[in-house]
């Protein structure tokens, strides 16, 4: 979690220094920015995205600003992201930090209206995904509960991504751009454990028994 | 230490104001100092249900805007000494609420009362967000039908992210209050069953309030149902809910369809 504060030039100077000490620190990691300190100065928010992208930092979500003020180009608002302790980079100046597995684990249900976006890999939800919620992953999606909302897997062009769930009640399934709505999913599979994957240009949805 | 409780739902018309009045009155009767606040600026109803609509001089917005002091706006209930209410404005709208103003009012109320119960408006806009922001605990009022359940799920997501407690990394205690429960409809499958709602919302069940004419009768005479008809099925259910709110373990009574002798003997007509 990044917490930019004005004056932004000073904050970026600090960020650059940290990245010089640990160049791989942000590599492949999903980053959430807490923009509450910038909420009063919306012009700064627009420039922030470009400045972060130029440094190879990929924002997957933002907190603390109204969606309208944030602007269309910004990623969806997340809530409840955990702060990455910024002291970690300082304590290991020479060795690059150990590569963390690219997967996101959520051990709470995803509530209606919440949007989880994780381009860096798989997303696992220990709980249900509510109707009107969405999970978007670069890799596969695993739901140990009922999938009632949308699941969008393989978002960055990964055609081998799959979607798994314990109870299929999804509103929409999509893998690498190919999607299927609830209407087009076999009624016999509704409420059952299921998985979905791509076979060429076709999406196969089958029971998991 | 005072506890701030928000009664919220997302969906409109499910029983938030009815429940705020009922729970507030029951808590006050058990000896606690309770204040119920109407956050539905512009569409106020709590004053009607509490029977205070003819005694409103100043309201929440007047206090926030510094036009009145809190004691001038608080209305003491005539039936229960330890129960007060703070009405909303009817002439303004929710833009008159400010985060700082609400914080100040809640802070002042926490010093005088044991329970501060905030009756949230429907929706997820400013009024609802300000009503829930300072909550230590939440009662999520839900009818056992699909749109109410989905809206409650949304509200639960907001309780976990848009409250002061969530911002500090703490949790808001969430309780599910299932209202307007109709056993025959649940049996027929026209309404969701209790287990279905619990499975979708995954928060602890505070109580099941059955659909009952006693609720309408009470609101027509401007009295919380727990004062007007304490022995009616909804009355008893609200009293049980209040015990559970205070930590007591009370076995959950699921309302059942009452069938008279005639309908048991001549259940269904066959051709």
- Helical residues, percent of chain B: 40-55%
* Mean pLDDT rating of chain A: 79
Q: What is Rg of chain B?
A: 19 Å
Q: If strands are numbered along the chain, what order do they take across the biggest sheet of chain A?
A: 3-5-7-9-12-13
How many strand units of chain A? 13
What spatial form of chain A do the alpha-carbon principal axes imply? Answer: elongated
Distance between the termini of chain A: 39 Å
Provide a short characterization of the protein structure:
The complex is a heterodimer of chains A (209) and B (271). Chain A is built from four helices and 13 strands.
What would the keywords be for this entry?
heterodimer; A: 209 residues; alpha/beta; six-stranded mixed beta sheet; elongated; B: 271 residues; eight-stranded mixed beta sheet; 14 helices; 8 strands; 41% helix
Tell me what the structure shows.
The complex is a heterodimer of chains A (209) and B (271). With 209 residues, chain A is of the alpha/beta class. Chain A has four helices and 13 strands. In chain A, the strands form three sheets. A six-stranded mixed sheet of chain A has the order 3-5-7-9-12-13, with no helix packed on it. Chain A is elongated. Chain B is α/β, with parallel strands linked by helices and 271 residues long. Chain B is built from 14 helices and eight strands. An eight-stranded mixed sheet of chain B has the order 3-4-2-5-1-6-7-8, sandwiched between helices. The model of chain B has no long low-confidence stretch (mean pLDDT 95). At the A-B interface, loops of A face α7 of B.
Helix and strand topology:
The complex is a heterodimer of chains A (209) and B (271).
Chain A: H1 8-21, E1 31-34, H2 42-54, E2 59-63, H3 67-70, H4 87-91, E3 103-106, E4 115-118, E5 122-125, E6 134-137, E7 141-147, E8 150-153, E9 163-168, E10 172-175, E11 178-181, E12 194-199, E13 202-207
Parallel strand pairs in A: 1-2, 3-5, 4-6, 5-7, 6-8, 7-9, 8-10
Antiparallel strand pairs in A: 9-12, 10-11, 12-13
Chain B: E1 3-8, H1 16-29, E2 34-38, H2 46-50, H3 60-64, H4 70-73, E3 75-76, E4 83-86, H5 99-112, E5 115-119, H6 126-133, E6 137-142, H7 146-159, H8 164-167, E7 173-181, H9 183-188, H10 194-201, E8 205-210, H11 213-220, H12 225-228, H13 233-245, H14 261-265
Parallel strand pairs in B: 1-5, 1-6, 2-4, 2-5, 6-7, 7-8
Antiparallel strand pairs in B: 3-4
Helix pairs in contact in B: 1-13
């Amino acid at each position: 979690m990044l917490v930019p504060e004005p004056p932004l030039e000073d904050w970026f100077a600090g960020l650059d220094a940290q990245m010089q000490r640990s160049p791989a620190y942000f590599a492949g990691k999903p980053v959430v920015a807490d923009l509450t300190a910038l909420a009063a100065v919306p012009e700064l928010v627009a420039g922030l995205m470009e400045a972060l992208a130029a440094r190879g930092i990929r924002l997957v979500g933002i907190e603390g600003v109204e969606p309208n003020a944030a602007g269309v180009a910004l990623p969806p608002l997340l809530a409840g992201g955990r702060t990455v302790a910024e002291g970690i980079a300082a304590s290991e100046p020479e060795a690059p930090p150990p590569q963390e597995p690219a997967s996101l684990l959520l051990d709470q249900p995803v509530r209606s209206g919440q949007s989880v976006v994780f381009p860096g890999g798989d997303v696992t939800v220990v709980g249900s995904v509510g109707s009107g919620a969405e999970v978007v992953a670069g890799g596969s999606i695993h739901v140990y509960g009922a999938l009632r909302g949308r699941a969008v897997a393989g978002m960055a062009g990964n055609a081998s991504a799959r979607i798994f769930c314990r109870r299929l009640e999804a509103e929409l399934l999509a893998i690498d751009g190919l999607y299927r709505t609830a209407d087009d999913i076999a009624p016999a599979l509704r409420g059952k454990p299921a998985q979905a994957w791509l076979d060429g240009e076709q999406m196969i949805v089958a029971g998991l028994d | 230490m005072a506890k701030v409780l928000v009664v919220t739902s997302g969906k409109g018309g499910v029983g938030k104001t009815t429940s705020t009045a009922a729970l507030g009155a029951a808590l006050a009767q058990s000896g606690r100092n309770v204040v119920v606040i109407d956050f539905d600026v512009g569409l106020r109803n709590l004053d009607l249900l509490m029977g205070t609509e003819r005694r409103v001089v100043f309201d929440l917005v007047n206090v926030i805007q510094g036009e009145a002091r809190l004691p001038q706006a608080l209305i003491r209930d005539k039936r229960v000494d330890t129960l007060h209410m703070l009405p909303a404005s009817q002439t303004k709208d929710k833009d008159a609420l400010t985060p700082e103003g609400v914080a100040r009012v809640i802070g002042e109320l926490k010093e005088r009362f044991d329970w501060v119960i905030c009756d949230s408006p429907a929706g997820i806009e400013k009024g609802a967000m300000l009503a829930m922001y300072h909550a230590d605990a939440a009662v999520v009022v839900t009818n056992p039908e699909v749109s109410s359940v989905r809206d409650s799920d949304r509200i639960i997501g907001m309780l976990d992210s848009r409250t002061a407690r969530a911002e500090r990394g703490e949790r808001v205690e969430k309780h599910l209050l299932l209202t307007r429960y109709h056993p025959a409809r649940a049996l027929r499958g026209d309404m969701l069953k209790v287990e279905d709602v619990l499975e979708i919302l995954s928060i602890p069940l505070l109580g099941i309030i059955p659909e009952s004419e006693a609720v309408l009768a009470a609101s027509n005479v401007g009295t919380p149902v727990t004062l007007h008809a304490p022995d009616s099925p909804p009355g008893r259910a609200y009293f049980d809910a209040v015990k559970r709110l205070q930590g007591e373990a009370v076995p959950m009574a699921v309302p059942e369809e009452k069938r008279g002798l005639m309908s048991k003997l001549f259940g269904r007509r066959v051709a």
